[in-house]
Amino acid sequence: MISFVAIGTIVGTLLGLRFKVFVLVPATLIAALAIVATVHGARTIAITILATTVLLQIGYVLGYIAHAYADARWHGRTVLRRHASKSHPA
Q: Per residue in 50-59, pLDDT tens?
C-alpha cells in the first residue's frame, strides 16, 4: 500500500509538470487496475485506491504549482506581485 501511495504522489507531480488536469482520469484508472491486480482483500483495495487517488491529485497540484513558478521565473516575471499603497510606497 505504501509503495502505491508514494508512487502515486511522484507520478502526480510529474503529470502536473507536463499535462492538463484531464490526464488524471486515465492515470487514476491505471492505478486502480494495478492495485486490484496486486492487492488482496476488498477493504485493502478500497483504501489503497482512495489513498492513491487523493495523493495522485495532491501531487498533480504540487507539480502544477512548481511548473507555474518555474515558468514565471524563466520568463522573468515575479511570482508574487506587490502593489504600492499610500501608506507604504514602493
A: 999 999 999 9
Q: Which domain holds residue 22?
A: 2-74
Q: Which long-range contacts (CB under 8 A, 24 or more apart) does 26-33 make?
A: 27/56, 28/53, 28/56, 31/4, 31/56
At 29-76, the pLDDT tens digits run: 999 999 999 988 999 999 999 999 999 999 999 999 988 888 887 777
Q: CA–CA separation, 4 vs 38, rounded Å?
A: 10
What is the distance between the alpha carbons of residues 80 and 60, in angstroms, rounded to a whole number? Answer: 21
C-alpha cell at 28: 487514476
Q: Does residue 23 sit within a domain?
A: yes
